[in-house]
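Design request, tokens follow.
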């Protein structure tokens, strides 16, 4: 069936005129055939004329099928525009089609302009109205003129990569996964979700698997594997990884900047300590929490995990420490989505079991809580994943919700010795609405001076600042934070994010603590 408009040559009436509609104007007396125009009504333009469906060679027109008395003529009749049967039972005798005002929209199948992918983000892409709030909030775009910014990496690239012949732009690997763009967008466009999907596709399909960059990124993304091996010989590993010639070789061979100091490995991991103490010291089936300690608190700063356990037991909670793997945060940042999924499967399975026993999930690292809460349900379709997201909280956040923390701190009487802290809120804390929680918790505690050093990004963004080609940019991003820390009264930094703590210490030389450690000291837990 060939589609023609009525001004296609001989598509006029039988008098041979080339005027559209046989010289009649819209609104003419069509029923009687006189052709007289209705006064004041202009002639229909081409775009306003109904379409005529002319049978292709060999096809039987609808009128002939009808005259043959074919009961099932609807099945044989050529489809109307859109490829489906018209919802109207009648046809327009002038055009051979149906009256468009009677068409049922439900009878038509939608046309997929872009083929679907692993994640259907069309709705989110269409919500972007190019205000560039995401671009102005991006710390990488601020220091890297060649980085096109979150708007391109998100909705624009999502549309482009719907095309089979379009590759993911390599600049996606310069996104630090700070997720500030999510917080900045007034339209709730899932920018970081788009970035994660695009980065995963780039690594999977376009990155050379034998390249130095891929191997290095794979090692950085799977920090849990390296830390697990290093914890077998923690003192030797700590010395070897910070030995001058070894650092020089790592930069030349692997692209890991020699300026970075590797964090020391604990001589006793958190899980070893937990096992040695005999597990939970409080049994309370009515108040249970499952502690997701993450990699860093287990292998490098077990004092944070110990503080979490003691503080929660102070409030009468039974603490569970289920089997777990990495949250996947460094894997998301490096496009290793298959690795992240393997870890997520273990984590979700064990955390769902704990939730079934009445526990909520508590994380002492804001990147871990962000991963469980947001990135897991965005990227993976796993049984129980929504339950995990719904029941996950950051450790201080949970106490502020469920306990009279202010009253407990007042009753404790504060610290005996005055202590001043320069507090930095991690980007992943801001994205969860937790940017002021530490300041608000301790601002009225006697003996504690808590000073917020501003809303700038620390610049390290997990593994971003551990790459030689991005080291200088990470330090440039963190410069504002360093300056504010040095202007603060205290010479001890505070943050909930372990990699932010690395950057704060690297840029200022200050000792860094976690809010849970100060809470433990203040409560005498």
């Amino acid at each position: 069936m060939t589609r023609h408009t009525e001004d296609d040559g001989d598509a006029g009436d039988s008098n041979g005129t080339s005027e559209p509609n046989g010289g009649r104007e819209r609104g003419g007396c069509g029923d009687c055939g006189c052709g007289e125009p209705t006064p004041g009504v202009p002639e229909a333009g081409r775009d306003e004329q109904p379409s005529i469906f002319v049978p292709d060679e060999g096809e039987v027109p609808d009128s002939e099928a009808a005259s043959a008395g074919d009961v099932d003529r609807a099945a044989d009749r050529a489809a109307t525009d859109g490829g489906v049967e018209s919802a109207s039972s009648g046809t327009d005798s002038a055009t051979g089609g149906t009256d468009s005002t009677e068409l049922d929209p439900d009878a038509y199948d939608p046309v997929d302009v872009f083929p679907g992918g692993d994640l259907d983000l069309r709705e989110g892409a269409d919500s972007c109205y190019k205000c560039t709030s995401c671009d102005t909030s991006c710390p990488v775009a601020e220091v890297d003129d060649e980085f096109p910014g979150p708007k391109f990496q998100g909705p624009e690239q999502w549309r482009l990569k719907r095309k089979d012949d379009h590759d993911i732009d390599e600049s996606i690997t310069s996104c630090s996964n700070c997720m500030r763009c999510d917080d900045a967008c007034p339209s709730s466009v899932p920018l970081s979700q788009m970035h994660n999907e695009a980065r995963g596709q780039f690594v999977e399909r376009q990155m050379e698997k034998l390249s130095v960059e891929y191997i290095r990124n794979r090692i950085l993304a799977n920090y849990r594997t390296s830390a697990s091996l290093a914890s077998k010989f923690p003192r030797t590993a700590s010395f070897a990884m910070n030995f001058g010639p070894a650092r020089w070789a790592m930069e030349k061979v692997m692209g890991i900047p020699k300026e970075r100091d590797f964090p020391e490995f604990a001589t006793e991991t958190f899980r070893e300590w937990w096992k040695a103490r005999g597990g939970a010291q409080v049994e309370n089936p009515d108040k249970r929490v499952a502690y997701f300690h993450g990699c860093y608190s287990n292998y490098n700063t077990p004092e944070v995990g110990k503080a979490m356990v003691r503080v929660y037991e102070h409030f009468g909670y039974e603490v569970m420490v289920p089997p777990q793997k990495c949250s996947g945060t460094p894997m998301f940042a490096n496009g290793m989505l298959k690795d992240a999924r393997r870890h997520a499967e273990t984590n979700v399975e064990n955390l769902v079991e704990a939730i079934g026993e009445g526990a909520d999930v508590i994380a002492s690292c804001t990147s871990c809580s962000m991963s469980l809460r947001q990135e897991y349900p965005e990227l993976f379709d796993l049984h129980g994943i929504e339950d995990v997201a719904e029941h996950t909280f950051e450790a201080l956040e949970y106490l502020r919700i469920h306990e009279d923390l202010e009253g407990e701190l007042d009753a404790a009487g504060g610290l005996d010795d005055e202590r001043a802290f320069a507090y930095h809120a991690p980007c992943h804390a801001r994205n969860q609405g937790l940017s002021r929680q530490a300041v608000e918790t301790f601002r009225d505690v006697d003996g504690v001076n808590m000073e917020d050093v501003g809303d700038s990004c620390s610049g390290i963004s997990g593994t971003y600042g551990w790459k030689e080609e991005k080291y200088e940019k990470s330090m440039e991003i963190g410069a504002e934070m360093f300056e504010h820390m040095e202007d603060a009264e205290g010479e001890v930094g505070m943050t909930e994010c372990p990699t932010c703590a690395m950057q704060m210490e690297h840029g200022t030389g200050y000792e860094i603590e976690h809010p849970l450690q100060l809470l433990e000291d203040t409560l005498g837990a």
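Comment from the thread starter after seeing the answer: thanks! The CA atoms of residues 75 and 363 lie 61 Å apart.
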